[in-house]
């Protein structure tokens, strides 16, 4: 008959902590409470089959979720109550040779460690269990009973022995024996003689546990801790050993990194914690769904808890709840997890071993079962089964007889730290009797083989005695059994290797992904740094040149005044290598494939200057209009014709800067034409100037170029529209400027800039008079210098 025991759930709400904002949306309701759950703050917490946890839906406060559990503890509950109600009855189950697992689950800071470990004044489940184990130890006079303890933590998905000093603690492998039992290899087990001795060992070991401070918990567990107390009961008369165990698991809490304020180390821990808890959820889900494959192997935590979830142990889940508002969603998650877990059915078995030497296998030997211990555990399991338990619980080990004698290694308790079996019960030199009841047991297979071999024995060959026939059959059965065992071992080994390979591939992939991401991030970082460096370099240069004028005036932005760089650049022209390179690059860029360049090549020097001036004038008109990108383009075209004009280069840089930084660019008023006779000393220049002066009002076209003067005269003579003759005379300019825009621009730019230059009042409006004069002087230079240099 199938013996099942559902995982039992106890929910515990911790009291409010100092500074915590708590509302009344999470309550423990006991039978007899009114509909508002007003009695949940009764002085004594309650334990009842019909208690439930009530949580108001955070999205719709009119809706209340109810989570009924066989045990619900409110914020006034004591450690003693929880122990008496839910834990103590399990002690006798342990002494009947069954494995019991109690685990505390909940969000970080919900009180798991408090419940399991407690404090000196309020000892939790662990110290109370050990005390009770010692108290019960001598009540089974037919057994010689000894207790031992092992303690491990799963930190970032690696298992460490907490009973050895941290420096010496290697990562321990999790393995599975051929009967499908999971165990931690080389985990030490320490015999204990008294509760006091245990406490000493435990306190020391707890200091080895990974604990860290987060925003939510000053001493937050960064690992899952599993303490196992094992009772070994030797029955001398029957020469059998009964092994009962209790696993006490303090899980690390699920974490929301936004709330915990985790740093990089804590984040890595948190990721491992959350991942293992998520796999735990998947395991529970798969068990509920009756999935063909349960993902125990996806984390070490679930592999180790395998026996407690759908395995062969009796399990109690203590669900810890935090009352704070900030935990509301986590509380709902925890309760949902608990609801799903309570449907999981385990099939507890009695772990009993026959220490007598193996009898010769006999095909017709009657199967001997350990009825006394089975009966004891069966009745105990029935006693602890709550209303949620599915039917009569009956532990059985149908193959104990079949296994008899073959597993005769006695557990070694002689030395103080002996690598021993832990959860699941099988160490490298110690065999458990627990066989999975859900189909994979080697023992069952052996039984069926035994049965399959039986028929030939019932038809003895003629001429052989009964003993001879029996011997032959026994030999055949032994051979078959050995072959089967070898096959199963090979299968397991293959499976294990495949799993290892798969994990290695996953790890490899993940590390490659991480490396690629890190490289990309580093490259991006370098690019950003380089950009920042360039920008600040550029900014520094400009700031230096602007240091004579305040950044802001009357709260409004003052853009970089044009021409302000002139003295500086002149002075440091040869030294400013970067600027030179940039200018050269700009020249190259615009020279390459530029029609203007080709045209400039065939123009005379004078025509080049004139065309350049024309472009400057147009560019200036655009910049005054705020159309900086077009202006920039025109200035660059002008540069094609007058590549050596330093003023022009400065202008281009200034406008580039303004465009790049989204700043306005306010050009100074158009400078007055210079008296060329004053500036120029060469007769050649004077002659050219004369020619230009003569042609000033006729807007001459020379070699297809349009002079700045022609545009200027058009501007001054026309208040609207575009001069058609200019269209004919300036084909190059028309290509860059639509007539309509040009007309607008003519209207807008018609202003008496000559007067402006000379009127102190106007200059004062912009601030510093001296500065203004200087600026305008330099402005003037940009355009006039074209003539001068020609
Ligand atoms: N029932 C309780 N009575 C009084 N204080 C409690 C109770 N439960 C928890 N606390 C207090 O709440 C705080 C957080 O509890 P605890 O460290 O046990 O949480 P935890 O769930 O183990 O957290 P983590 O997962 O981060 O380790 C502690 O200061 C603890 O003393």
CATH superfamily of the domain at 5-32 and 47-354: Kinesin motor domain
First-to-last CA distance? 112 Å
Contiguous low-pLDDT stretches (5 residues minimum) are 35-48, 363-378, 386-462, 676-683, 685-780, 784-790
Which CATH top level class of the domain at 5-32 and 47-354 fits?
A: Alpha Beta
Largest sheet: 12 strands, mixed
User: What is the helix content?
Assistant: 40-55%
Percentage of residues in DSSP E strands: 5-15%
Mean of pLDDT: 69
Shape: elongated
CATH structural fold name of the domain at 5-32 and 47-354: Kinesin
> Radius of gyration, Cα only, in angstroms?
45 Å
Class from helix and strand fractions? alpha+beta
The number of helical elements comes to 28
Q: Which ligands are bound? A: adenosine-5'-triphosphate
Number of strands: 25
The CATH architecture category of the domain at 5-32 and 47-354 equals: 3-Layer(aba) Sandwich
Please give a structural write-up.
This protein is α+β, with helices and mostly antiparallel strands. 47% of the residues lie in helices and 14% in strands. The protein contains 28 helices and 25 strands. Mean pLDDT is 69; it is low at 35-48, 363-378, 386-462, 676-683, 685-780 and 784-790. Adenosine-5'-triphosphate binds at residues 14-15, 17, 106, 108-114, 217, 219-221, 252-253, 320. Residues 14-15, 17, 106, 108-114, 217, 219-221, 252-253, 320 line the site of adenosine-5'-triphosphate (ATP).
């Amino acid at each position: 008959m199938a013996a099942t025991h559902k995982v039992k759930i106890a929910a515990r709400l911790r009291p409010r902590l100092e500074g915590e904002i708590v509302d009344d949306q999470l309550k423990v309701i006991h039978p007899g409470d009114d509909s508002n759950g007003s009695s949940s703050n009764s002085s004594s917490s309650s334990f009842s089959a019909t208690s439930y946890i009530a949580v108001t839906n955070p999205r719709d406060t009119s809706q209340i979720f109810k989570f009924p559990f066989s045990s619900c503890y409110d914020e006034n509950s004591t450690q003693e109550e929880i122990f008496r109600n839910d834990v103590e009855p399990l002690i006798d189950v342990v002494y009947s040779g069954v494995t019991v697992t109690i685990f505390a689950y909940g969000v970080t800071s919900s009180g798991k460690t408090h419940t399991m470990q407690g404090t000196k004044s309020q000892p939790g489940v662990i110290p109370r269990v050990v005390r009770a184990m010692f108290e019960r130890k001598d009540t089974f006079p037919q057994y010689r009973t000894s207790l031992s303890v092992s303690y491990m933590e799963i930190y970032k998905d690696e298992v460490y022995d907490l009973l050895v000093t941290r420096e010496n603690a290697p990562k321990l492998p999790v393995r599975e024996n051929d009967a499908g039992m999971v165990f931690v290899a080389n985990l030490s087990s320490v015999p204990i003689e008294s509760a006091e001795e245990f406490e000493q060992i435990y306190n020391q070991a707890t200091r080895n546990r990974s604990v860290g401070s987060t925003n939510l918990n000053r001493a937050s567990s960064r690992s899952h801790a599993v303490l196992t107390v094992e009772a070994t009961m030797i029955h001398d008369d029957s020469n059998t050993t009964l092994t009962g165990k209790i696993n006490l698991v303090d899980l690390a809490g699920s974490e929301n990194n936004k709330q915990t304020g985790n740093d990089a180390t804590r984040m890595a821990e948190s990721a491992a914690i959350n991942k293992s808890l998520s796999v735990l959820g998947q395991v529970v889900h798969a068990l509920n769904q009756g999935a063909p494959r349960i993902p125990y192997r996806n984390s070490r935590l679930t592999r180790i808890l395998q026996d407690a979830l759908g395995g062969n142990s009796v399990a109690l889940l203590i669900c810890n709840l935090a009352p704070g508002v900030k935990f509301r969603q986590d509380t709902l998650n925890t309760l949902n997890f608990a609801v799903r877990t309570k449907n999981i059915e385990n099939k507890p078995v009695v772990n009993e071993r026959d220490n007598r030497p193996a009898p010769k296998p006999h095909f017709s030997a009657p199967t001997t079962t350990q009825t006394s211990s089975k009966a004891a555990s069966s009745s105990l399991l029935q006693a602890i089964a709550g209303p949620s338990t599915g039917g009569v619980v009956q532990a059985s080990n149908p193959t104990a007889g079949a296994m008899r004698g073959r597993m005769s290694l006695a557990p070694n308790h002689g030395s103080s730290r002996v690598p021993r079996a832990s959860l699941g019960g099988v160490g490298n030199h110690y065999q458990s009797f627990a066989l999975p009841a859900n189909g994979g047991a080697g023992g069952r297979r052996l039984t069926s083989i035994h049965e399959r071999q039986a028929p030939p024995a019932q038809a003895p060959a003629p001429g052989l005695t009964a003993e001879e026939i029996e011997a032959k059959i026994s030999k055949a059965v032994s051979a078959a059994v050995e072959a089967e065992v070898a096959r199963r071992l090979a299968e397991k080994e293959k499976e294990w290797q495949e799993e290892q390979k798969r994990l290695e591939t996953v790890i490899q992939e993940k590390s490659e992904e991480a490396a690629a991401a890190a490289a990309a991030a580093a490259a991006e970082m370098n690019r950003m740094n380089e950009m920042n460096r360039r920008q600040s370099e550029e900014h520094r240069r400009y700031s230096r040149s602007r240091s004579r004028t305040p950044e802001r005036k009357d709260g409004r932005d003052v853009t970089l005044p044009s021409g302000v760089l002139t003295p500086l650049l002149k002075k440091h022209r040869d030294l400013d290598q970067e600027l030179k390179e940039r200018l050269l690059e700009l020249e190259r860029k615009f020279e390459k494939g530029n029609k203007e360049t080709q045209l400039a090549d065939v123009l005379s020097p004078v025509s080049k200057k004139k065309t350049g001036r024309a472009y400057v004038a147009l560019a200036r008109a655009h910049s005054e209009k705020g159309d900086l990108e077009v202006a920039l383009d025109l200035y660059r075209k002008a540069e094609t014709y007058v590549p050596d004009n330093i003023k022009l280069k400065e202008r281009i840089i200034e406008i580039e800067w303004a465009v790049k930084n989204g700043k306005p660019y306010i050009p100074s008023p158009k400078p007055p034409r210079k008296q060329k006779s004053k500036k120029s000393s060469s007769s050649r220049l004077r002659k050219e100037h004369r020619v230009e002066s003569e042609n000033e009002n006729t807007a001459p076209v020379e070699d297809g170029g349009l002079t700045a003067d022609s545009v200027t005269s058009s501007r001054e003579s026309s208040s609207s529209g575009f001069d058609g003759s200019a269209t004919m005379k300036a084909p190059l300019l028309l290509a860059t400027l639509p007539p309509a825009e040009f007309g607008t621009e003519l209207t807008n730019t018609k202003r008496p800039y000559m007067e402006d230059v000379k009127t102190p009042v106007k200059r004062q409006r912009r601030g510093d008079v001296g500065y203004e004069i200087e600026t305008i002087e330099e402005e003037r230079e940009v355009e006039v210098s074209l003539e001068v240099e020609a």
